[in-house]
Amino acid sequence: MTATNVNIIGLTRDVYKGLPSTLCAGCGHNSITNHLIKALYEYGVQPHRLAKMSGIGCSSKTPAYFVDSAHGFNSLHGRMPSAATGAKLANRELLVLGISGDGDTASIGLGQFAHMIRRNIDCTYIVENNGCYGLTKGQFSATADVGSSSKGGKRNEYETIDICGVALELGATFVARSFSGDGKQLVPLLEAAFSHRGTAILDIVSPCVTFNDHEGSTKSYAHVKEHGFALHAPDFIAGSQEIVVDYEPGAAQDVEFEDGSHVILRKLDVEHDVTDRLGASRILHQTRERGELLTGLLYVDTKSRDFCEREAMPSAPLAHLGSSELRIGRDDWAALMAAGG
Ligand SMILES: Cc1ncc(C[n+]2csc(CCOP(=O)(O)OP(=O)(O)O)c2C)c(N)n1
Ligand code: SF4
Predict the structure, then answer these.
(1) Distance between CA 174 and CA 200 in Å, rounded?
(2) What is the largest distance, in Å, between two alpha-carbon atoms of the chain?
(3) Using an 8 Å Cβ cutoff, are 156 and 148 in contact?
């Protein structure tokens, strides 16, 4: 009898697969799907505890291509955060995974993005960033770099919106950037984002091979390979596992999450403390000025309270509560009114 490979909760990798992709062959979004399948399998997520939320765009079709049996909701353009917020508030036991595009997030959905971060909703928020609107045939998005050009040779005259820069400024409690072609970096960052309690922003550069992979684009495979600048090499260690990663004292930063998991960040060429928000903004600016694409975990605050904790939401799913727990009593209502809300 041959032994079947299973994860820590006894499920095979096939359970984490979805429908066959209908995206273009070579699209970065397809690689992200494969890295998500690996991360969710390794992390041991129970499919019925996973909520895959998205907006509109090629990127927002991604949830169809992994964990077929999980919950999923493909919402309106730019509205993933409000749908994801509703899912989390209804059931705190869910691992909420929001998938969006740079068009979906940095234009029509910018307000929703800002307020999800401000509330620190417990959600892994992925931006599959290709610098264009792939689904509507490649127009520049707000994350296209000034001076970069379209497939037809048109120059983008407008300043870029840097997803990580804006997230840091808004007070996000977990900010990371990666590349669809770098699974070694992306998979541990995804697992760290799952463990983080709060909004975890993951800006993933994901080339659009059909409309934005030419010379002059700063979101092409060739550009990222040439100008990528990784902060560190991450390893993720789940709460239940022993830390066996070997590193010299001072050669890595160890970040512990509330669930007991760790991400070990081995230093590469620069010194960066991931708990220093100002330092993260500074290095982001410095590398952008040099024309480099900074990747890695930029900032994390593991002690912050998420929205449900701050608002003292019940830990049980709302659907499991009886009417006596859901409805406020006459006396409590009168006291609330007397206190002026
Ligand atoms: C309210 C509304 N406005 C505009 C559109 C048209 N539209 C669909 S997808 C999209 C942009 C998609 O770009 P992005 O989020 O970057 O995803 P990609 O397709 O590049 O992965 C737009 C403008 C829409 N569907 N709904
Ligand atoms: S149009 Fe671009 S973003 Fe959309 S599936 Fe094709 S390569 Fe991917």
Answers:
(1) 5
(2) 70
(3) yes
Weakly modelled stretches of the chain, pLDDT under 50: 1
pLDDT tens sequence across 51-97: 999 999 999 999 999 999 999 999 999 999 999 999 999 999 999 99
| Closest ligand to Cα 161 | 1
DSSP string for 105-127: HHTTTHHHHHHHHHHT-SEEEEE
Helical pair 277-289 and 163-170, crossing angle rounded to 10 deg: 160
pLDDT in tens, 119-134: 999 999 999 999 999 9
User: Residues with Cβ within 6 A of ligand 1?
Assistant: 56-59, 77, 101-104, 128, 130, 132-136, 141, 208
Contact 205, 32 (CB under 8 A): no
Under a CB-based contact definition with an 8 Å cutoff, are residues 122 and 199 in contact? yes
Is the pTM higher than 0.85? The answer reads: yes
Pair 267, 232: CB distance under 8 Å: yes
